[in-house]
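Example 3.
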Amino acid sequence: MAFRSAVITFPGSNCDRDMAVALEQVSGTAPLRVWHADADLPEGLDFIALPGGFSYGDYLRSGAMAANSPIMRSVKAAAERGVPVLGVCNGFQVLTEAGLLPGALMRNASQNFICRTVALTVENSQSLFTAGYASGQTIRIPVAHHDGNYFADEDTLDRIEGEGRVAFRYAENCNGSRRDIAGVLNAAGNVLGMMPHPERAVDAAHGGTDGLALFESAVKALAKA
Amino acid sequence: MKIRVLVSLKPGVLDPQGRAVHHALEGLGFKGVDDVRVGRTVELDVADDTSDEALDDMCQKLLANMVIENYRIEKLG
C-alpha cells in the first residue's frame, strides 16, 4: 500500500523539499506538494507535513499568518479526523498558532538564532511518530530557529506532561523552553509539533540518521492500521 | 475610525527582547530602569460602524496570541 503523504508549502517555507525527500526516502512514495492557497487537500491522505521555514516572513508572529491561510482549514479538519500531522520548526509554530497544539513558541531566551545539532531525550515512545524509539533514548537532531522557546502556562504544562504528550525534551535546553520541551503531541496523539528537524537527519551524509525512526514509525503505523 | 491595538506580553511571561533592551539601556549609562517589556502596536482604519465585538474578535483571532499576550484597544476617533 502506497504511503500517500502531502507536504504543505507556504510562502517562505524553506524546508519543504527536505521534508519531501525524507518522506520519499522512507516511504518509497513521493509526497504530494500542496500550496498554501489551495482550499482543499488531496483526498485520502495518510500523512500531512508542515515544513520549516519563515512563512510570510514571520510577520506578526512566527506562524500566525500561515495558521490562517486557506489550506489550514482543511489541515484542521484532517487532524480532527485522525490523519497524522507533523509540524517541524515553523510547522510547529503554525500548529500552535492554529490551535492544534497547546502553547506558543517565543523568541529564544538567548535572543540568538541557534543552528546546531542538539541532543534530545525521547519522552514518549508510544505515539505513531515515536514508536521506533525507546523511552529515555537520547537522539541527536539539528535545530535551526530563532523562535523555539516553548511556552505554556503551568496548568497546561502539568496537563500535557500528565497525559504523556511531551514527545521530546532537550537534553540540554538550548532556547529557554519551559520544562525543556522540544516536541508536543495533541490529545489524540495524531498531531506532533517539534522544533528540531528530523528530516535533516535521515542520511549518513547529513551527519546522523536519528530522524529516520520518526518517519519509519509513521509508515509502519499506517501499514498496521 | 482609527483604532490602535497595543499588544503586550502577559505578566509572568519572560520577555527576552525586553531584557536585551533593558541591558542595552544600562550599557548606555541610563540609571533607574527597573524593567523593560517590548510589545507591538497595530493601527487599523476601520468602518465607523465596526462593533467592539468585531474588534475583540480581530485581536483574539489574529492580532494577539492569547496564550502569551494581552491586548488593549484604543479608539483614536
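The interface with chain A takes residues 13-14, 16-17, 20, 61-63, 65, 67-68 of chain B (CB under 8 Å). Chain B has one domain: 2-75.
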